[in-house]
Amino acid sequence: MSNPRPAVIGADVPRVEGIDKVTGHVTFVDNIEPPGMLHGMIRRSQVPHGRIRRIDTSRARQLSGVYAVLTGEDLLRMDIDPYIGPAFKDQAPLAIGKVRYAGDPVAAVAAVDRDTAEEALDLIDVEVEELPAVFDVQDALRPDAPLVCERLVPAGTFADLIELLGGGDVPATSNACFQYKLRRGDVAEGLRRSDRVFEHTFSNPPTQHSDLEYHCSIAQWEASNRLQVWTATQSPSYVRIMLANMFRLPESRVRVRVPYLGGGFGSKLYMKLEPLAALLALVAGRPVKIRLTRNEEFFTITKHGLVAKLTTGVTRDGRLLARDCQIMWDTGAYADIGPRVTHKSGYTSAGPYQIPNVRIDSFSVYTNKPPAGAFRGFGIMQVCWAYESQMDIIAREMGWDPVEFRLKNVLREGDVQATGTVVHSLGLDQCVRAVADAVAWDYREASAPHPTGDGARHLVRGKGVACSMKAVITPSVSAATVLVHSDGSASVLSSSVEMGQGSDTALCQIVAEELGARLQDVAIVHPDTDVTPYDLITAGSRTTFHMGNAVRMAAIDARSQLWPTAAELLDAAPDDLTAQDGRVWARTASDRSLTHGQIMMARFGGRAGTIEGHGLFETHHGSTDLDTGQSDRVTAHWMCGATAAEVEVDTDTGQVRIVNLATAVDVGNAINPFACRQQIGGASVQGTGPALLEEMLFEAGQLTNPSFVDYKIPSFLDLPDRLQPLTVEDPHPDGPYGAKGIGEAGIFAIAPAIANAVADAVGARIPSLPITPEKVLRAIAPP
Amino acid sequence: MKHDVTLTVNGRVHRMVVESHRTLLEVLRGELKLFGARESCGMSLCGACTTLVDGLPVSSCSYLAARANGRSIITIEGLGRPGALHPVQEAFLAHGAFQCSYCTPGMVLTAACLLEENPAPSVDEIKEYMAGNLCRCASYGEIVEAVQAAAGQMPGASAPRGPLRAGAVQEDGHGDGC
Ligand code: FES
Ligand code: FES
């Protein structure tokens, strides 16, 4: 039985944790200090590739205040499985045998304070014999390239990485550790039949998440061989499973707790510092905290650099006939979740378009650089950069309007996507139209003269558009529990991590809605693997859809246990009941109502008892042909977004100013419209970083800008003059109240929309990110 | 070298011994367990550690504790509290000017100072003044809105006022922010 009028769903409810946040009282992991806690710090390799000859820790061990010193070799002597990695077991918490990037952890210490730990690190002598290294993905694929990783051992953890399931330990033959393959139609024939064929290569550099909260993990062993962990992670359930594997413990003896996160954006996924903290704590016999510095963040996880070569055939009437995508992902020295990035973005590497002939070959490639993993969008930003840049070049050269060209080709309800999966509930057409309207797109001919700004000759303006789609990670599992207490208030037990995206509020809204409770009577229990059930990860825009469904099911389960008592008291049939704002009544006799507390009191005969509701939401994919990537169901739902940008380019300085930035995302049905717009606006501004500013710069494998001095992220001064976060609602039949995930879609198309606007303004194309003033000046300089 | 210092933090007096290299941020978090000031760069580039010293915003990550001797310090914990929020905090709540909130204490304290100096700042003045405070969730737009809204709500908004100073210790131990 559902309420006729959703009361809490669809309302601009303020964040449930708002007061804690504006007063600075939210707990982050670094605020936690178990008694006796030590501080762990990491010594890192200075060479990008080398064989570890000797690590002498004797002087460090003798320093007063040092409780533990560890090297990779020590790990081999412990009764553990030292290898971790969500796709391949290719990484140890401390390098074993070889270092693979400048910044690779080689030793760690735990000491009474950070000063002592730092001093101890300096006393460690590391001798490494340098090996030839490779830093560029294309070089790394040459047959004579040095091998970064010698063996490929699939982790076999995640069901969506079908290519890796059941794979054994094999020697690596190249630096390509993973390939995603898609074949649809006949690309060669399609290109042959095309009226025009375009071939371009686009690239973007590695960037860094720069979530403001550093990685931080605390581990504490109990005498009974039970491991307690507090950690800034987006994947508590995964961390528990992997720590249990590493230490050969039952999962029930590993407890992982996550308070609030100061941002994640993918950087805090899978295992990061947890194993090392646990190892140091084990050796030291005391709790150990490791927290990184800003500098170390750059050496911990990055967003993949990419090189994409696209060959696209079009017909004279404006249709895409064939597209070939050859894509190389720079996954750095360890694969981390590179294969999932390659795989997830693989599906839609040819763009959100109906194209009868598609070939995609996408490779995760090892290089001697810091490992690359998940970043908001799992690779969609990078592939979108390539295909939406090319879409614009095609439109311009063919004399087509860029918006109309896209609208002619975008996927719509019932179309078959390149993977063979039929598209449902994809409001992409509406997103493109919404952003075009928002920047007053004039559907001009691409060859029309570029409007100039402000009447000053050196300022020129242009508009650009781009769009994108993504498959939500499938299969996946989310479970939740709702407890109704003796006074009728409720707790929501969920392993979804509140990292700023507003999941606590959305989940509480859903539970309040289903119970008919007041929002203030519903509280969230943050991830604690002893009590909060399994959830795959808090990432990939999956929380609202998956955990939203799970908590909804749990609330309905709890309600169904309470209603019979209420029905009896109200002389009504349970089916006749409805509830809102903390009161339950029969539709037929609305003059009498009960509070949830009164119902509990009646049910248990006093101020006692708990009602426990359970929810388990699972999604499944169809069978997939590994040679063609064809599947009847690659995903439980598609998400999509579009961006239109208006920029002003100063042709004297090359500076790009964003005058107007409009991004529309299909939210399905907004649980909290304000929160949706905030996610979209935040993603938009965040996306201007990789578009205009951000780039990790390397010289001979040494990162030269690992700080906010030289690695600039958007500030107040980079805020577009006008920012328009827009929502489109194409409800999804399986989403809670029709809702879809939205955390990522706002960032997908920012960079190409800006690049397309710059090209519109100055008539020159910049094929590599970021679009720096230098590149703009070079692009417009007379030959 | 060690220094005997007296810090007045949120109106409460603390006498302690600090080493020369100890930063104010380390003392606030490590000794006083005031976790509202946060580190995110450690080199005066992000504003997450912003703390008011004698009414002016400083990056406490780069401000030596010894230098704060004899000075009055306000952290987010001393600016307002549930039930008696500072107008800037009220406005941040009303405008949803945060996501993860890691940057929020620094943003709120900086904005409070801005409004003391300039009770009716323009959008550009807000952006300029706050440019040293980074927000990776990019809630910048909402923050600008919140600061503008708070501008109208500041007590004595019509005239510029002196720098923020901690008042007397209140019964519950919280200082009176401004
Ligand atoms: S931590 Fe002090 S300014 Fe960044
Ligand atoms: S709200 Fe997350 S950094 Fe500002």
The biggest sheet of chain B amounts to: 5 strands, mixed
- For the biggest β-sheet of chain B, the strand order reads 2-1-5-3-4
Q: Helix share of residues of chain B?
A: 25-40%
- Can you tell me the CATH topology of the domain at 425-473 and 637-780 in chain A? Aldehyde Oxidoreductase, domain 4
Bound molecules: FE2/S2 (inorganic) cluster
Straight-line N-to-C gap of chain A: 71 Å
Question: What does the model show?
Answer:
The complex is a heterodimer of chains A (783) and B (178). Chain A is of the alpha+beta class and 783 residues long. Among the domains of chain A are: 18-26 and 476-619, Aldehyde oxidase/xanthine dehydrogenase, molybdopterin binding domain (Aldehyde Oxidoreductase, domain 4); 425-473 and 637-780, 2-Layer Sandwich (Aldehyde Oxidoreductase, domain 4). Chain A has 19 helices and 32 strands. In chain A, strands 3-5-1-14-11-12-13 form a seven-stranded mixed β-sheet, with helices on both faces. Chain A has a five-stranded mixed β-sheet with strand order 9-18-17-16-10, with helices on both faces. In chain A, strands 20-28-29-32 form a four-stranded mixed β-sheet, with helices on both faces. In chain A, a hairpin with a 3-residue loop joins β11 and β12. In chain A, α14 (503-515) packs parallel to α15. Chain A is globular, with a radius of gyration of 27 Å. Mean pLDDT of chain A is 95; it is low at 1-5. In chain B, α3 packs across α4 and α3 (87-94) packs across α6. The longest helix of chain B has 14 residues, at 104-117. Chain B starts with a strand and ends in a 25-residue tail after the last helix. Mean pLDDT of chain B is 89; it is low at 157-162 and 166-178. With 178 residues, chain B is α+β, with helices and mostly antiparallel strands. Helix content of chain B is 31%, strand content 15%. The interface between A and B is large, with 51 and 51 residues. Bound molecules: FE2/S2 (inorganic) cluster (FES) (2 copies). One FE2/S2 (inorganic) cluster sits between chains B (98-103, 135-137, 139) and A (212, 263, 500).
